[in-house]
Structure formats: structure tokens, C-alpha cells
From TrEMBL:
Its cofactor is Zn(2+). It comes from Rossellomorea pakistanensis. SUPFAM superfamilies: Aldolase. The lineage of its organism: Bacteria, Bacillati, Bacillota, Bacilli, Bacillales. Keywords: Lyase, Metal-binding, Zinc. This is Fructose-bisphosphate aldolase class II/tagatose 1,6-diphosphate aldolase GatY/KbaY. GO terms for molecular function: fructose-bisphosphate aldolase activity; tagatose-bisphosphate aldolase activity.
Length: 283
């Protein structure tokens, strides 16, 4: 069944686990994520960036959202990841998305605030919850590239003001994660996360979770993290399984065959991530 992120994230937030949010780029990955969630009997968030929507086409996305709603045996939310304009948010809501992120984190504080307010007003009128970000998460996500050096952490006082004034439903702080894999193990700022968590009463979102060690992800669940975003690791296992398949079967031309191991690899990693997020370490 299709649900909004509001209900599944509130439950996770109150019970100190997190819902996995997986970047999906095509039909195979969408189906593999759902299969993984069904194996775990867990709610799941499928998310697409504006770049993916452009690639797939919003009408196909709408049809896949409807198909997922009709057939999935677990609660599924379809979320716009790093929405970069009011327009794309409206497009997604019209296509049946049940959750959106508006990312104005590159804007000056007041402009970010105004953009998010405007999106929240429109989205809430359609009963769609909104995620927003303050501070800058480093790394590369689609067309969005942030130098590690220009990434900066979220200020807890500004975060409090931001969440109060915008009335967003979930908040993505910058506390040391980055999009993509890491050259060195990331240093997560748990004290900062804790002080943000203590000022804000809404579920927090960890971006850039690919490459973050399981203990660090699980530790963050003690500080209000209720949604954890994975994209790069799914892309990596999908592509690696395809490369391996074609090395072993260089003349295979049937997509119904060569996508199978790649889809299974995605399903497996989704199962692994969900079980990690459901069994937080109490430390
Ligand atoms: P990773 O690619 O590091 O998993 O980050 C995903 C993400 O934050 C999507 O918004
Ligand atoms: Zn992200
Ligand atoms: Na990452």
C-alpha cells in the first residue's frame, strides 16, 4: 500500500529505528527495492531525484507509483529526493508522490526558508509531507556537486528556527556525511547531531549513508535519525553484477536474463540495510 512518509517516519522516530530510503533509477531497481522490503516485511521509501525523473519521465513514474501501490505487500512511500524547485515538487505531487524534499540548502538562510515555506504550504494542502535541509552535505548527487571543503555543518540554533518557521515534517542536517563513497572513513559529528535533536521535535534524515559503517549509522538512530538515504551502494552493486554477468556471458543479449543477478544484488543490499536500521545498537 502507498503511504506518506509522515506515518512511517513518526513510528520510526518514536521507536528509535529508521526507515530505509533507497534511490531508484529504473524499473528493475524499483522492483528490487520493494522485493527487499517485502522480504523484511518492513516499510520502505523509494526515492527519485529530479535527474531520475527526467530520465524515466514523469508519466512513467506515475504509472510505476500506481503499480507499486497496487501490488506491494508492505507500506511504500514515494519520495522526491533533492527537489530543486517549486515546480518539480508540484509535478511530483500531481503524479502521486506521497512525500517530497525541497533542497534549498545552497541558498542563503532566508531564501531557503522562504522557498521551503512556500513548498510546505502547497504540499500540506495536498496532504504531502516535506523534508528540507540546512547546511551542506558534501559529495556528488546527480548534477549537484559540493566540494568537501565547502560543505558546512548545520547550526543547531538556526535549525530550530528553520523547522519552527517552515513547519517541515522531517529535517536533514549536515553533520559529516557526504553523498557517494568516502575516501576516508567519515567523521560524524554526534555531539552536533545530539544538540540538533534536542532542539527539534521531528524525525531527522541521514543523507549520504552509502559507505558509512553500520555502527555509525546505528549510533545515529539514538539521536532522532529516522530516515536513512542510500543511493551509491545500490548503483554500485547493480553495475558490478552486470559487469560480472557480461564477463561470464559475453554474448547474452536478453534483458530478461542479464538484469536478474543485478536486481538480486540490489534486493540483497536492501535487506541488509533494512535489518541494520531495524536493530539499532543501544550505545
Ligand atoms: P549516498 O549516495 O551516499 O548513499 O547518498 C544518498 C542520498 O543522500 C540521497 O539523497
Ligand atoms: Zn541526499
Ligand atoms: Na555516502
Amino acid at each position: 500500500a502507498l503511504v506518506s512518509t509522515k506515518e512511517i517516519l513518526q513510528d520510526a522516530y518514536q521507536n528509535h529505528y529508521a526507515v530505509g530510503a533507497f534511490g531508484a533509477h529504473n524499473l528493475e531497481i524499483i522492483k528490487a527495492v520493494i522485493a527487499g522490503a517485502e522480504k523484511m516485511d518492513a516499510p520502505v521509501i523509494l526515492q527519485t531525484t529530479p535527474g531520475t525523473i527526467k530520465y524515466v519521465g514523469i508519466h512513467y513514474m506515475k504509472a510505476m507509483v500506481e503499480a507499486a501501490a497496487e501490488t506491494a505487500k508492505v507500506p511504500i512511500a514515494i519520495h522526491l529526493d533533492h527537489g530543486d524547485s517549486f515546480d518539480i515538487v508540484m509535478k511530483c505531487i500531481r503524479a502521486g508522490y506521497t512525500s517530497v524534499m525541497i533542497d534549498g540548502s545552497h541558498l542563503p538562510f532566508n531564501e531557503n526558508l522562504q522557498l521551503v515555506k512556500k513548498v510546505v504550504e502547497a504540499a500540506h494542502a495536498a496532504n504531502v509531507p516535506v523534508e528540507a535541509e540546512l547546511g551542506t552535505i558534501g559529495g556528488v548527487e546527480d548534477d549537484l556537486e559540493v566540494e568537501e571543503s565547502s560543505a558546512f555543518y548545520t547550526d543547531p540554533e538556526l535549525a530550530e528556527q528553520f523547522v519552527l518557521e517552515t513547519q517541515i515534517d522531517s529535517f536533514a542536517p549536515a553533520f559529516g556525511t557526504a553523498h557517494g563513497m568516502y575516501k576516508q572513513e567519515p567523521k560524524l559529528q554526534f555531539d552536533l547531531l545530539n544538540s540538533i535533536h534536542s532542539r527539534i521535535d521531528c524525525p531527522l534524515v541521514m543523507h549520504g549513508a552509502s559507505g558509512v559503517p553500520a555502527e555509525s549509522v546505528q549510533h545515529a538512530l539514538n539521536y532522532g535519525i529516522a530516515k536513512v538515504n542510500f543511493s551509491t551502494e545500490l548503483k554500485d552493486v547493480f553495475a558490478e553484477a552486470l559487469r560480472l554477468y557480461f564477463r561470464e556471458n559475453p554474448s547474452q543479449n536478453d534483458p530478461r536474463k542479464y538484469f536478474v543477478p543485478a536486481s538480486n544484488a540490489v534486493k540483497e543490499i536492501v535487506v541488509e540495510k533494512i535489518s541494520m536500521l531495524q536493530s539499532p545498537l543501544k550505545v
